Amino acid sequence: MQDPVPKRMQDLKGDVTGFLMEKRKQFEKDVNASLRSLNENLQGILKAEQKSRQELKSVYCERFGSLYQKWLDEVDSTRDQEEYLSFITQQQMKILETAIADHETKLENAKEMCGTFLKKANNLSKHGKTFIGGQQTNVEKEISKVQDRVIMETQDQDVSTVETYLQSLILDRSEETI
């Protein structure tokens, strides 16, 4: 009877070892299947996250790209407007300098004409006393009136020239603002 017990033990040991080996193989298959499933789920989540990020990136690029381009266009436009305004300002300064020089020349010419007229009027006044006699006071009055009129016309002409130029500057400036 001793033979059958060790043989049975050996058979039982072989059955237990085989059973454990089967269980181990089944466990490894289950673990591998679980890992594969987990890996597939993680891959799916990763792909979904990447897709979501790509979509968000696309949306942000679309929105901010157009805003950035508009901003660049506005910067260019502002720079162009600044250059144009600088150019116009320089042109107006040249025109103003020319107008001032012309005005000064006209004023000098008017002063010279008044001086010449006064000299001639004085000469006429001196010579008129001998020729006219009693008419001297009338001639002096007429000379005084003519002198006043010449001075007034010269002043009116100067004021009119300055007003015309200033109005043209104001009109030019208001057209640029529009």
TrEMBL record:
Xref: InterPro entries: XLR/SYCP3, XLR/SYCP3/FAM9_dom
Domain (XLR/SYCP3/FAM9) ranges: 20-148
Entry similarity comment: Belongs to the XLR/SYCP3 family.
Protein's name according to its UniProt entry: X-linked lymphocyte-regulated protein 5C
UniProt source species: Apodemus speciosus (Large Japanese field mouse)
